[in-house]
Amino acid sequence: MTPMKNISKRFAGLAIDFRNNPFFRARLKLTAVYSAGVLALLVVFSLAIYSFFAKNITSNLEYDGQDQEESQNIELQVIQRAKDQLLAVLLTVDGLVIFLVAGMSYSLAGKTLRPIEASYKKQKKFMADAAHELRTPLAVMKTGAEALLMGRASEKEYEKFTRDFLEEINSLSALVNDLLFLVRGDSLKKIEFEKIDIGLIAKKQVELMRKYAKNKQVNLENEVNESFYIQGNKSDVKRLLANLIKNAIDYNRPDGKAVVSLSVEKNQVALKIADSGTGIAEKDLSHVFDRFYKVDAARTKTAGGSGLGLAIVKEIVNSHGGKIGIKSELGKGTEITIFFPSVFS
Fold first, then answer.
1. Distance from the CA of 42 to the CA of which of 5, 80, 132, 249 falls in 20 to 30 A?
2. Domain 194-340: which topology?
C-alpha cells in the first residue's frame, strides 16, 4: 500500500470516528479549547516582546557620521531587518509551542474523557445485556399467550402454560430485583451500617438453603460454630451469603459438597464458601465478577441465573470495604474467600 493510500485511509478513519464517536468529537473540541487558550496567551506575550525589543532597537541605533538622509535610510533598513528577524523567531517559537501544546492537550483531553467514556460504555453494555436477559422470558410468555388465544389448548396444556408463565414471571422478578440492586450501587446511595453477627446470619442462611441443596443432591455443611461481628448492612450480607451458597449448590455435582466457614485472619473476618463442583477455567476467573458474565452457556442454562449473582456479591463486598478472592480448578471445585475489614468483640 502506497503512503498516499495509507494517509487517505487514516483520514477516512478519523472522519468516521468524528461522525460516529461523540467522545472523539469532544476530545477534539477540548484540544481546540486548550490550544486556543494557549494561543491567545502566546499572541499577547509575543506582541509584548516584539513591541519591547522593537522599541529598544530603534532607540539604540546611532548615526555613523554619514549625511542625515543616508543615515536615516540605513537606520530604517537595519530596524526593519531586526524586526523581521525578531518576528520570524517569535513565529517559530509560537508555532513549536502550539504544536507541543496541541499534542499535550489531545493527550490530556483523552485522559480526562477516558473514565467518562469507560462509564458510558459500561452502562451501554449493561443496558444491552439487561435487554437480552429480559427478551428470553418475554418471548416464552408471548408464545404461550399466542397459543392460548388460539383456543385449541387442552386442560393439561393450560396448566403447563400457567406454570411456565409463573416460572418466567419469577425469573423476571428476580432479574429486575438484581438490576435495581446494582443500580442502587451505581447511584452511590448511602447504605446504613450497624454491628451485626455474620456468624448467626451464615447459620440461618445455611438452614434456609438445606432443602434446596437436598433437592439438588448436594451436601451442604455448616462449619460456623461461634459469633463473628462486623460493621455491615444485614440485608446485604444475607443477600451475599444466599448468592454464594446458591452458586455453590447450583454448580456442584450429584453427591457433591458445599461448605460454609468463618474465621479470623489478621484481625479480619474471613468468610469462605467452598464446593466440590465443576470448577472454573483459569481464563474465566478474572471475569466471573463482571455483570452478566456466564462462564459456560450450557452449564448456566442448566443451573439458571442471569450472570448477576457474583457481580452483586462483589458490589456488596466493595460497599463494606472488604476484599474478595477466588480459587478454582476444573473438575475439582471452587473456593471463594471474603475478608471484612473490621472485627468487633
1. 80
2. Heat Shock Protein 90 (3.30.565)
